[in-house]
Known about the structure:
Blueprint: H1 2-15, H2 17-22, H3 29-38, E1 41-48, H4 49-57, H5 64-74, E2 78-85, H6 94-102, E3 109-117, E4 122-131, E5 134-144, E6 147-154, H7 173-181, E7 190-194
Amino acid sequence: MKTTIAALLLGAATLATQALAQDALPLPTAVEKELAAKASDVTEVTLGKNMLGFAAKFMNGKDKDDAAVRQLIQGLDGIYVREYEFDKEGEYSTDQIEQLRKTFETPEWQPIVRERERKNSETTDVLMKVVNGENRGMFILESEPKELTIVLILGPIRMDQLGELGGIGGLGSLAEVQKGMKVKEKGKLTDKVKTDGDQ
């Protein structure tokens, strides 16, 4: 069933150009273009409310996993994933990363994970959107010397639900993101800076 959903979503994405234009990723367009231009491998997944509704229609609910995913995505307003891989280190700048972070420097977005590894220049940011005390979204930004991953989910989502979305076409990377997040503390701010002397 998940294979069918993936095929339908990918086909619909090809045909629904206008719908996707309305559901553009709410990040600095210039930064996106710069990263895509320099990257050797680019993965872009854009599923706005309309496309998520389209996906839900093909989940009949008879399969337990499909029913859980259908219920989850029906409550979401958008899923946006950007993965950039580079041939060499230094092909994107810290200024570009800061521009991405500043987009979410608002009272609604609260950091729950912030990790900086000086030894290998890797960083991880996880922010939760909280509106009237309720979780209404998640932003994940992971940077490595030759790879950059951006995940934005709008709507109620928990960290342990990321893997459930991995069966939808193009979202397999979310399961990997979830796996990486499991080694970090959940539900509270983790603010670590690892130095060369750390084990």
